[in-house]
Amino acid sequence: MTKVAESYLNAEVGLRSWLLTTDHKRIALLYFASITFFFFVGGIAATLIRIELITPGPTLGSPDVYNRLFTMHGIIMVWFFLIPSIPTTMGNFMIPLMIGARDLAFPRLNLLSWYFFIAGGLLTIAALLFGGVDTGWTFYEPYSTFYANGYVILAVLGIFVSGFSSVLTGLNFIVTTHKLRAPGLTWYRLPVFVWSTYATSLILVLATPVLAMTLILLLVERVFHVGIFSPQLGGDPLLFQHLFWFYSHPAVYIMILPSMGVISEVVPVFSRRPLYGYTFVVWCSIAIAAIGFLVWGHHMFVAGQALYASLAFSLLSYLVAVPSAIKVFNWIATMHNGWIRFEAPMLFAFGFIGLFTLGGLTGLFLAALAVDVHVTDTYFVVAHFHYIMVGGAVMGYFAGLHYWWPKITGRLYSQFWSRCAAILAFFGFNLTFFPQFILGYLGMPRRYQSYPPEFQVWHVLSSAGASILAVGYALPLFYLWFSILRGKRASANPWNATGLEWATPSPPPPYNFARTPTVVEPPYHYHRGEAVMQAERG
User: Fold this and answer.
1) 337 contacts 254 by C-beta, under 8 angstroms
2) Could you write out the DSSP letters of every residue in 18-44?
3) What is the distance between the alpha carbons of residues 392 and 197, in angstroms, rounded to a whole number?
4) Contact present, 162 and 114 (Cβ < 8 Å)
5) Per-residue confidence of the chain (538 residues) as pLDDT tens digits?
6) Radius of gyration (C-alpha) of the chain in whole angstroms
């Protein structure tokens, strides 16, 4: 009988060994399971929304029910899937492997961050089960204080508690990147995924406390009627918007920067070429994180802020597009004259580049004051947001999941079904959300259950696309699970890639490396299409 090599999966057994583990790889899998659950909860809400909007009048319930549906969808998807999706899963699993470390700097804090995440998620789910929230995911004032009749306090507490998870995760990654790199792994030899996660961690640590303070002030006002944001009590509702968007626009880059890091890993591997302009890509990640803190006011062009402030935020919004565009050009240049292989990770990467580019271009429309006045609070904004957050972040998530799945599980998945999933997700997404650009331009406001009959054809197209998109998102659940049960065993480096994570067995042992590797080559070192390993072999 062939002896099964020891890995992090079989080193310990039993539920207790998982719930009390400090192994970064096991904690990553706990996060994988958690965010998958929240993804499908948010997806069910999205499905009900699209069914409701097939007809111009009410279909599933009252306008209040519809308000609670889109609020549930937004809260769950933003705070319990999109923000934690890549950092807590692939970041947790891969960062120590990519830098030659045995674990993160603070393993117990890593486990604690998962428990905070679960506690926050359960509080939020409880709020939804008890009757939901009707404020929208932004909790705008004074509605949230005086007029909302849902479980606002419980939902806000859930988001507040989950913020501790974000801060602890970001702090752990920052310290790990600074202190635990292998010998020879200088800053300019780090994989771009590590740089992107590092930039994301800076945003998590700096921005999340602002959201926490804002939510606490909202609770104080709602419970004790202290005048902070509500005009009825002498407060200022614009203050809430400034504080909320000071966090929430950098949060956009919390969602998208890790996906950019994933694409920067996938494109060189499946093009068999070094990443073009490595230094530019690295510093563009830092630039996006920094400038992202300066553009929150473009969400408030029609809220009543000063015209000169709006002009400044408009210019800064154009500026933040520059480093994003540089990354896109560098990915395309990397593929030029490459030996491109159309494996599933690369197809998802193609999807990311196309959808993110279109989402970014429509962001320039919203950065223009005159255009924004016309399309604010319409479906144009909904489409733009989803092209970036879903078309970008979720495509990047699936690209990374398919790229590192053999390393995580030690199993290979079906290339046929994975390619089908990537293609269905791309076309289904465009059919879902591109009609919404047209709806928004024609004046269809968002968050409305009923609409004029002339808009129905676009909503029907959007709902049809959503059904295709749902199939594309559900397929991986089946063939990845099948790969765990029946899939072929993966070699240590099935993609013939560079990088330290591919120098360990698949799945990795509990200690990651038998001995600490020494890095002697830059990342993405491909010579005539062949990978040159980054580290000396032990």
Assistant:
1) no
2) HHT---HHHHHHHHHHHHHHHHHHHHH
3) 16
4) no
5) 445 678 999 989 999 999 999 999 999 999 999 999 999 999 999 999 999 999 999 988 899 999 999 999 999 999 999 999 999 999 999 999 999 999 999 999 999 999 999 999 999 999 999 999 999 999 999 999 989 988 999 999 999 999 999 999 999 999 999 999 999 999 999 999 999 999 999 999 999 999 999 999 999 999 999 999 999 999 999 999 999 999 999 999 999 999 999 999 999 999 999 999 999 999 999 999 999 999 999 999 999 999 999 999 999 999 999 999 999 999 999 999 899 999 999 999 999 999 999 999 999 999 999 999 999 999 999 999 999 999 999 999 999 999 999 999 999 999 999 999 999 999 999 999 999 999 999 999 999 999 999 999 999 999 999 999 999 999 999 999 999 999 999 999 999 999 999 999 999 999 999 899 999 888 998 865 566 656 654 4
6) 23
Is residue 449 within 8 A of residue 412, CB to CB? The reply is no
Question: What six digits make up the tokens of 184?
Answer: 């020879």
> Residues with Cβ < 8 Å from 357, sequence gap 6 or more?
328
The answer to whether 145 and 234 are in contact (CB under 8 A) is: no
Q: Which pair of structure tokens corresponds to residue 111?
A: 């486990």
d(CA 453, CA 396): 36
Question: In Å, what is the CA distance from 222 to each residue of 169, 209, 229, 233, 245?
Answer: 30, 20, 10, 11, 20
Query: What's the distance, Cα to Cα, between the start and end of the chain in Å?
Result: 28
The Cα 62–Cα 42 span in angstroms is 20
Q: Which residue from 221, 78, 230 is spatially nearest to 163, judged by alpha carbons? A: 78
Helix H or strand E segment including 98: helix 92-99
**Distance between CA 84 and CA 107 in Å, rounded?**
18
Residue ranges and CATH numbers for the domains of the chain are: 15-531 (1.20.210.10)
Alpha carbons 238 and 245: distance in angstroms, whole number? 11
CA pair distance 282, 276, nearest whole angstrom = 11
Instruction: Check residue 499 and give left, alpha or beta (phi > 0: left; psi -120 to 50: alpha).
Output: left
Structure tokens of 476?
């991986």
Q: Name the residue type at position 413.
A: Y
Tokens found for residue 201: 């961690």
**Widest distance between CA atoms in the chain:** 77
The helix (H) or strand (E) run that includes residue 192 is helix 192-224
Please identify which residue in the block is written with the tokens 């509605």.
Answer: 143
